[in-house]
Amino acid sequence: DAGVIQSPRHEVTEMGQEVTLRCKPISGHDYLFWYRQTMMRGLELLIYFNNNVPIDDSGMPEDRFSAKMPNASFSTLKIQPSEPRDSAVYFCASRQTNTGELFFGEGSRLTVL
Amino acid sequence: DQQVKQNSPSLSVQEGRISILNCDYTNSMFDYFLWYKKYPAEGPTFLISISSIKDKNEDGRFTVFLNKSAKHLSLHIVPSQPGDSAVYFCAASFLSGTYKYIFGTGTRLKVLA
Question: Over chain A, what is the mean pLDDT?
């Protein structure tokens, strides 16, 4: 299996621009998670989906952040407009219901200038 | 409010010695705990887990201990090797119901040759 695939690996943009991060979970996994890694907060859960339905988005920092999962093999995390404090590494992860292990992608490093 | 805390941001250990990484949690309803290891520019990878019905789980050089009354878990690595140098995250979750994984801020382990 190819694992969780994220794109882009690196994104540099200017403040105010729209940013879209993409994720393809492992086939057959019915849970998908978006995390953000920062020095201060470690791995911070933003939102997670079960069978393409958002279950908990309480970690999404502001209305500038939105996430969608139109089908079982694709999810996006969008930031509009982006701000310098959004600079971080964003991880997507997936798992199956009956297993405990969470599988992470390699992350998308976002820099907002 | 940080529900999972790793109070030591970094740790240095001599090769061959024991590494002990600590983690505290605040929610007594957590019943499943995991440790993940993260190398630079890679996603976190699963290392070892423990459910709340056990107080110890061992896998090769890695042992996780759980003290439910103290809401504390620790990861022991014996013997430590230079390849173990990485950031270690502990995470807490629930075996049923909500499947949120709450991660700590991480501890950077450096094993000195």
Answer: 93
For A53-92, write each residue's pLDDT tens digit: 999 999 998 899 999 999 999 999 999 999 999 999 999 9
CB B79 within 8 A of CB B15: yes
Tokens of A65: 């952040």
The greatest distance separating any two alpha carbons of chain A, rounded to the nearest whole angstrom, comes to 42
CB B15 within 8 A of CB B111: yes
Contact flag B42-A56 (C-beta cutoff 8 Å): no
- For the segment A41-63, the average pLDDT, to the nearest whole number, is 92
Give the minimum alpha-carbon distance from B45 to chain A in angstroms, rounded to a whole number: 7
Is there a contact between A100 and B41 if contact means CB atoms under 8 Å apart? no
Rg of the Cα trace of chain A? 13
A35 vs A102: CA distance, rounded Å: 12
